[in-house]
Amino acid sequence: MLENFLADLKASLTASHIVRDIEIDDEFITSVSGFLDCTVVLIDGSILYVTEYFSISDDIIKREKYSYHLQKDDEFIIRWDNAPHHKELSTFPFHVHDKSGVHKSKEMTMDEILEELSDKVMSE
Questions:
Q1: Which string of DSSP letters, residue by residue, matches 56-110?
Q2: Cβ–Cβ under 8 Å, residues 28 and 53
Q3: Sequence-separated (6 or more) residues with CB below 8 Å from residue 25
Q4: What confidence tens digit (pLDDT) does each residue in 24-73 have?
Q5: Contact by Cβ (8 Å): 63, 77
Q6: Rounded distance, CA 41 to CA 117, Å?
């Protein structure tokens, strides 16, 4: 089950029309958890740093930690994550950072991030 989850994460990146290149920096899978850390070059030259740590319990996959950090030319653009800070937000622990600050966000998936970024990348 975890193997399929990891394969689906990588397949989403591979299939995306906005992804130019993917470098897997680290990955592992055990009987109870998995991890993916990769650097993704988008077609506009921006870089998406992806980190996903996930586990399984009672046949349910839980995304323990994730971060999708986008930058271009060493300039921060946006980052979605579920780090357990910003308890003031009603969507805690899910939030998004951008140049104007920290905002509420729903839990994001790889596919949702790629869809969100597609509009930004294709409009440039």
A1: EETTEEEEEEEEEEEEETTEEEEEEE--S--TTSTTTT-EEEETTEEEE-----H
A2: no
A3: 37, 38, 39
A4: 999 999 999 999 999 999 999 999 999 999 999 999 999 999 999 999 99
A5: no
A6: 12
- Asked if 61 contacts 55 with a C-beta cutoff of 8 angstroms, the reply is yes
Question: Tokens 């990769």 label which residue?
Answer: 38
Please give the structure tokens belonging to residue 9.
């994460």
Are 86 and 95 spatial neighbours (Cβ–Cβ below 8 Å)?
Answer: yes
3-state secondary structure of 122: helix
Furthest-apart CA pair in the chain: how many Å? 44
25 secondary structure, DSSP code: E
